């Protein structure tokens, strides 16, 4: 059995997370590297319109069926993911009615101070890799903040498996081992200190394993797939690698007690924020991903715009490219808009970091425009000044009443 031990030059982690034994995948390097960019296409072909152009209805209103090239009706990715949203929302509602904290093993055999150290380490990693977001978490209650750090670190480590410096050595079997390790930590047998922080977190919050499994599935898909035929395929990928983060986070962030929104609608918004972030990430990184042989943009939309893989490899900004990009940006913004309604429904102290991350990530789209759509050789980057300005704006927005109280139920 292969042992994958990656660390040494890692500025992120220390001895505690480097324990390795046969057959267990070790992922202790958290070097700042880039994930290949990602994508999605809306299965509304049956309606004859693009939802992001016509005003995006709630997922339940979308056609649940898409048509495959053979003309057969198939369940769309959007519908499949919406089923996950419904399941997660139902679980949350059920678990909030049961005494969760008593029903689950506490702290999973970790000594109290060991767990504190584990959470602190997660906080340090989070601070190192996502400074602004880390600052935002400081407004949350201590328990929530630690939980978000633990989730962040698990996601970051998972992402690093396929996106980090050792990505070339990662095989589907290694991901299977990572998933086994996930199952172990969910049943109170964490493998290392950072896993223990997540074990502690799931013992305190009603978090389900499915979004975590699905993120690993996204990493599997990254290993085997370098093209996406249409937005439906891209949507699924975005759900796997980023929508899942939204679903993991809601049970920790909590819904405002005064909110009148349904749990499903809050989960849908969280999903939308993950999708919006990932679409933005993909649009920012077109050139970088192409240099790694990856094109996440929907192939059918490229063809409709008169563009090919070759055009992307050449990396010349033409009017065709500008027009294509305008539509992609418009779609990403629609997902941000959908997410906005949900942020207001979160518990008050959770809203600020989420608003901050939404505003900051969305600004990357403005920067792509400001670069005249040259995302081949220019990285869209939000400057320090704009970043700083987003923080008070986000704070102001976090004070607003939930949308469901302003406009009736969402
Ligand atoms: C407050 C807040 C934002 C909480 C989420 C914190 C958290 C657990 C983040 C984990 C992020 C992570 C490491 C995901 C792994 C996969 C990945 C890297 C996805 C990309 C993130 C951007 O990272 P970066 O720019 O560093 O990308 P590179 O790896 O360098 O390419 C993603 C684009 C997706 C991240 C997705 C989110 C942060 C989802 C946000 C949604 C919520 C927090 C739900 C909010 C709730 C409502 C109701 C709106
Ligand atoms: Mn990455």
UniProtKB/TrEMBL annotation:
Gene3D superfamilies: Farnesyl Diphosphate Synthase. Keywords: Carotenoid biosynthesis, Chloroplast, Isoprene biosynthesis, Plastid, Transferase, Transit peptide. It is an enzyme of class 2 (transferase). GO terms for biological process: carotenoid biosynthetic process. Its EC number is 2.5.1.32. Pfam families: SQS_PSY (PF00494). It comes from the Eukaryota. The keyword Transit peptide applies. One of its GO terms (molecular function) is geranylgeranyl diphosphate synthase activity. Belongs to the phytoene/squalene synthase family. This is 15-cis-phytoene synthase. It comes from Zea mays subsp. mexicana. The lineage of its organism: Eukaryota, Viridiplantae, Streptophyta, Embryophyta, Tracheophyta.
